[in-house]
Amino acid sequence: MKKIAEVSEQLKGYIDGKSGLKAQYTVSEKETREITMEDGDFTLFRTLYDESADIKVIKDNRVGSASVNKTDEESLRGALDTAILSAQSGTEDTCFDIASGMEAEYFEIGVLEPDIDRLMMRARELSEDITKRHPKVKVMQMIFSHVKQHSIYRNTNGSLDEVEKGYYDVMVEFAGNDGVNSTGIAGSGMKTKDLEHPFIELGSMERDLQDAEDSLHTVAAKGKFEGEVIFTPNCAAQMMYFALANFIGDSVILDQTGLWAGKIGQKVASEKLSIGMKPWDERIVEHEVHTADGFRSEDYMAIENGVLKSYLTSIYVANKRKVERAKNSGFDIVIEGGDTPYTQMVKKMKRGLIVGAVSCGFPSANGELSGVAKNSFYVENGEIKGAVMETMINCNLADMLNHIVDISKEVLCDGTMVMPYIGVDKVVISGKE
Predict the structure, then answer these.
(1) I need a labelling partner for 244 at 20 to 30 A (CA). Which of 91, 120, 369, 422 fits?
(2) What's the pLDDT tens digit per position in 284-307?
(3) Beta bridge pairs of residue 120
(4) Beta bridge partners of residue 38, listed in sequence order
(5) Which helix (H) or strand (E) holds 205?
């Protein structure tokens, strides 16, 4: 396999040979070392190699793109021709553009060379910790990986970014099982840049395992009532993604159907809520260094103290709708902890649910959401009564963000986000009669 710098230079030559072309392109190679455990024993150790090239072109104010998973001359030339053909058949629009040139930079992120012996030690330690601490959990599979990626981004305005990044990735599949009863399959995972701590202490691993055990015996949240909900960090992230994509995402700002379109600088949520998009936060393990359009990625606030600060817009939509583009194109969401401990949030609840996930379709344009509460627990008068099944929740996302009661002191840092527990009220809960 050619060195990635040679491939990038070769592709640059092909693109420079075309006239009237704006382009941005990335070549990358990835090495994944993967270890699998089943029933407490190592069952697989393999190394996977991938290479790719992604090309976006603008010709005569029309945009086209192509991707290939080979970097030989024929594949590169074919991908470029495909991108140009795609552009020629596209719609002309002067709002299509790429970023102006950036000075060449090199970035090294995370840990590039893995400590396989220590990774295996931590893997076996996790297996033993689960057996000891959570005897009513049945582990189906554990996958431990080290991912190393090397990429070079360029555009025809002179930008050149070279990035080398590496991180450890952990994923565990399990279910509660006491020999008689069993729960559905659940999972927990995280990304980390070091092996300094036991895996059971990272992310939400311990909490997820405990929830699986606690879900073995269920209670009924009888009837239909308006109550309170505490979203776990993982579920809170799901709700925030739904809300932001639905109200200020690229497509809804383009179509001007987003509920918060035209509301920059206005209050759209509880003053308790501040949402940052922060790829450079030290708690985010793997992140972009430039946007999808080729601008240097920067941290920014989408919502600050309830006030809308930014849309999640690309350069095209920003040009089309005469708004500011988002300062990064990732979803590295950071919501800092609040003032209330999680246990106190539970004690304050009169009647409601702790919700670990919501099984639902994408919310409607106005934010109406209806779904089944999964990995969830019924709370009454500050006491967790047990896990629930066949229980629905209904709410409007815009209203929900204005009805935030508490944000926990504790936050989940799993390498992909920073997220607390978020408590809201006025949610319709429908249990089995």
Answers:
(1) 91
(2) 999 999 999 999 999 999 999 999
(3) none
(4) 41
(5) helix 205-214
- Dihedral, CA of residue 258, residue 261, residue 267 and residue 269, to nearest 10: 20
* Residues 4-214, CATH architecture: 2-Layer Sandwich (3.30)
* DSSP H/E element including 427: strand 418-430
Q: Which two tokens stand for residue 236?
A: 């809170």
Per-residue pLDDT tens over the stretch 111-144: 999 999 999 999 999 999 999 999 999 999 999 9
pLDDT (tens digit per residue) in 323-342: 999 999 999 999 999 999 99
CB neighbours of residue 313 within 10 Å = 22
pTM (2 decimals)? 0.95
State the helix-helix crossing angle for 205-214 and 116-133, rounded to 10 degrees.
30
What is the number of other CB atoms lying within 10 angstroms of the CB of residue 53? 23
Both tokens assigned to 93: 């629009």
Q: Closest Cα partner for 86 from 107, 116, 109, 65?
A: 65
Contact (Cβ atoms closer than 8 angstroms) between residue 424 and residue 293: no
Residue 81, helix vs strand vs coil: helix
| Cβ neighbourhood burial of 171 (10 Å; 0-12, 13-18, 19+) | middle
Q: Maximum distance among all alpha carbons in the chain? A: 72
Distance CA 297, CA 327 (A): 6
Q: Within 13 A of 120's CA, how many CA atoms are on the CB side? A: 10
The CA-atom distances, in angstroms, between 89 and each of 6, 25, 58, 164, 256 are: 31, 20, 12, 36, 26
Residue among 58, 196, 36 nearest 120 (CA): 36
Distant-in-sequence, close-in-space partners of 355: CB < 8 Å, separation ≥ 6: 229, 230, 231, 232, 235, 373, 374, 375, 376, 393
CB 25 within 8 A of CB 56: yes
The rounded distance, in Å, linking the Cα atoms of 353 and 386 is: 10
CA-to-CA dists, residue 106 to 4, 60, 151, 281, 429, angstroms: 14, 32, 10, 18, 51
DSSP H stretches of helix in 134-160: none
CA distance 271 to 249: 21
What confidence tens digit (pLDDT) does each residue in 344-369 have? 999 999 999 999 999 999 998 999 99
For the chain, domain boundaries: 4-214, 217-433
Residue whose tokens read 């919700």: 355
The strand pairing partners of 63, in sequence order, are 58
